[in-house]
Amino acid sequence: MSNCMVVRRFLAYHRRFSANFALFTLPHNKLITNLNNTLFTSVKNRLCSATKYAAPWNMVFDYPEARRDETVVDDYHGTKIADPYRWLEDPDAEETKAFIEAENNITRPFLDSCPVKKDIHNRLTELWNYPKYSCPFKRGDRYFFFKNTGLQNQNVLYMQKGLDKEPEVFLDPNTLSEDGTVALSGYRFTEDGLTFAYGLSASGSDWITIHLKDVVTGKDYPEVLKKVKFASMAWSKDNKGLFYSRYPDQTGKTDGSETEVNRDQKLCYHRLDTPQSDDVIVVEFPHEPLWRIGAEVSDCGRYLIVSPVKDCRDNLLFFADLSKTPVISGKLPLTQIVHKFEADYEYVTNNLSENSSVCIFRTNKNAPNYKLIKIDLHNPAEENWETVVPEHPTDVLDWASPVDNDKLVLHYVRDVKSVLQLHSESGELLQVFDLDVGSIVGFSGKKQQGEIFYHFMSFLTPGIIYHLDFSSQKPYKPTVFREVEVKGFDASQYEAKQIFYSSKDGTKVPMFIVSKKNLPRDGSSPALLYGYGGFNINLQPSFSVTRLVFMQHFNGIVAIPNIRGGGEYGERWHNAGRLLNKQNVFDDFQAAAEYLVAERYTRASLLTAQGGSNGGLLVAACINQRPALFGAAIVQVGVLDMLRFQKFTIGHAWVSDYGSSDNKTHFDNLLKYSPLHNIQPPDNVSRAEYPATLVLTADHDDRVVPLHSLKFIAALQHAVRASPQRRPLLARVDTKAGHGGGKPTAKIIDEHTDILCFMTQALGINFEK
């Protein structure tokens, strides 16, 4: 898998987390002051007043008044932009820590005062407590699979010597930390299945350490590979060496709480059972410090496929002939195949013969819906490329995997639903597998293996894992290997449907609507509108306990529009929502809200907008532009300062979707919708008050650093201080957590409890037992 795809799938995985979401005693009033710089005014609870939010518990609070430094002004192409909360960009400053504490001190009482908090938490915990499995996958002569018994903080990796044999624990991340905040993040087995390389992440950071385990003994080798982030891992076919990407020159902290830009990633080679200090750099691009380097060893073992990326789309393509370097001791000679960042190229397979230089790639070069092509590495001129599976006119080729020596499994997305096909390696369609309306969320199979597993899920199906043995009679008939059941969930009581609505410019946009059957269409039901709209990411049907609680106990409606900017309809759909077209994303989301209200699924005062990461940007931009459309907003780990995002950690990679303020044209466009720069105080005449808003971030989020959320909530609270804003505008800053990946189950349940409590309090909706 190319690094471009690694980052994209990484984003997709970490975006999905957002989809799954005794009597209270007020704490002592806390007076937070800073006599030197008057950082805060008093923070205290007091009785309702005409200018304060009348919370259900009949108590209100003053927002922390963060210091404004009016001297910080940037000049963007002749336009002066003030940035009074620049000091909040320093996560280690005592001033920043005090602001975070003050925000949590007013948010926690509001959330904890929810009279049904215990009921919500108990129900989430009860429903979450069901066994969850991944597809089994075979490495060497053993099978492996992940399992969570229900409420374990981290999934456990099991091993078994046959599908009918008793599984045993191979790696349990829950034993690595008391609070479950150390998580498995990436892994790779050697071809013989005897050595296991695995990454560990702490507190949700993207930084990992790579460890190496002997599969037979279960013991780790002594070396630990550090300063690793956004890593490719690929073993050489002799099973003795690991190619991996790292940032060896990164200085200062590397725990996820830093904000420095990640620069100078290098591809290294580690020989098993040697110290990391002996590792050699095999590929680097010193004149391109922001490139990230993906690498994959070909199925035949002869070639190292190298795919540098600089953003979150498009990659170059190189290869090294490893047969010419039997002992790897330094830089590998590279042959370049693709010279321009203009398309994606993802290695799929090649023939197992060591003399086979013809490789299959998935690409969107001249094919917005993607296709499969053959490139001869020893004759790589573009005019010699051959099409194996042509682009489909409407369906998007999402991925391809080689199986059973001479076959390919292809996954398409058709109107946001999964389609699974079997092709010959020459491209011929052999079979289409029957699927209900839903998504393939897991797959395992390798070229040298005669079986596959795939995992199906939908809004109303918690999970079914299918198994197919290619030695069986044709046409192949997959069998159910394992089906997941959730106690207390009866799918027959719910319905999921897909509709198409018109956006502002007339574009037809699909949207899934899920709810109990026979809910009244009178605008009385609360609704949750979840969106993303970026980076070529698809929002396909998936099962969510949090959504189930919302539907089951609040009679809620869940709506998921597949807005432009995503990849549901290929690069055309993606391009229609990025760069100068970004406003289409917001228009699509707002049109979805208008549709739900017009069709009387809900009303604006009962509608919650939710999104995480790029989806956090979406929600924040929409409540700036159309505050009256929503009753509440959940802004999770959002990208909110669109003029400076590229200056922190991996933010520079997002320029492919957003553009950069360094460019005048893009600056003008970014300034129009940047959430931080478009906050407007309500006046209840021409400008409605903001919906009740909960901004969530975490101290170890080194993907979208917390400064985005901190600056936004500070500016938002400042703007409404003298306005008729009555609804709460709050921030929840978590500790020992990051962007969402690897978050322990206990923290997930706590966070989703808080989100549902916020909606309960803010909208005045009822939890029905």
Description:
The structure is a single chain. Mean pLDDT is 92; it is low at 1-59. The protein has a domain at 11-125 and 488-763: Rossmann fold (3-Layer(aba) Sandwich), CATH 3.40.50.1820. The strands form ten sheets. Strands 34-35-37-36-38-39-40-41 form an eight-stranded mixed β-sheet, sandwiched between helices. Strands 5, 6, 7, 8 and 9 form a five-stranded antiparallel β-sheet that branches. It has 769 residues and is of the alpha+beta class. It comes from Vanessa tameamea. This is Prolyl endopeptidase. It is an enzyme of class 3 (hydrolase). InterPro entries: AB_hydrolase_fold, Pept_S9_AS, Pept_S9A_N, Peptidase_S9_cat, Peptidase_S9A, Prolyl_oligopep/macrocyclase.
- Shape designation: globular
The main sheet comes to: 8 strands, mixed
The radius of gyration over CA amounts to 26 Å
Query: Whole-Å distance between the termini?
Result: 46 Å
Helix content, binned percent:
10-25%
Taken as a percent bin, the fraction of beta residues is 25-35%
CATH topology of the domain at 11-125 and 488-763: Rossmann fold
| Contiguous runs where pLDDT drops below 50 for at least 5 residues | 1-59
Number of strands: 41
Task: Give the helix/strand class.
Answer: alpha+beta
* CATH architecture classification name of the domain at 11-125 and 488-763: 3-Layer(aba) Sandwich
CATH class of the domain at 11-125 and 488-763: Alpha Beta
Output the CATH homologous superfamily of the domain at 11-125 and 488-763.
Answer: Alpha/Beta hydrolase fold, catalytic domain
Mean pLDDT equals: 92
Number of helices: 11
Order of strands across the widest beta sheet?
A: 34-35-37-36-38-39-40-41
